[in-house]
Specification:
The protein is an all-alpha fold. The protein has helices at about 5, 20-30, 50-80, 85-95, 110-135. The protein has two domains: about 1-45, no CATH class; about 50-135, no CATH class.
Length: about 140
């Protein structure tokens, strides 16, 4: 595992570029990789607000499209009666649907529950899109 990925820098990305994932890791004290002599940098205050906003727009564009694609994938999986996989796709779309149940062999979800959940995910996506678009404008 290349520590440059976690430190940022020329060949990687990380705290140096203010990626939220790495901020969460530092804030929550999660040790997921240890290499003597290296540590995660703290988040940087943006030197250039325009560049920071452009980076935020790139993140939003990518992540929001991923979320829309995961919801589309969930609908496909529902049509194939693959309900547990559809629930996983929705979890990926919003990062919260069934965190504790996902690895349980006893987990089940019905088509009706998934269709209701899909409506909730779509509503959440609309709120995220509106809020982010407003802040990035």
């Amino acid at each position: 595992m290349d520590s440059r990925f976690y430190r940022g820098g020329k060949n990687g990305w990380g705290m140096d570029e203010r990626h939220y994932f790495f901020g969460d890791i530092v804030r929550e004290g999660i040790l997921f990789y240890y290499l003597s002599g290296y540590k995660l940098n703290g988040p940087k205050i943006p030197d250039d607000p325009t560049a920071f906003k452009e980076q935020a727009q790139v993140f939003f564009d990518q992540r929001f499209q991923d979320s829309l694609g995961m919801l589309d994938g969930a609908h496909f999986l529902i049509s194939r009666s693959s309900y547990n996989l559809a629930a996983f796709a929705m979890h990926q779309a919003v990062e919260s649907v069934y965190v504790k149940a996902r690895y349980s062999p006893y987990y089940t979800i019905t088509k009706d529950q998934l269709l209701w959940l899909a409506d909730c995910v779509k509503f959440l996506q609309e709120i995220v899109n509106d809020t982010c678009s407003e802040k990035l404008a």
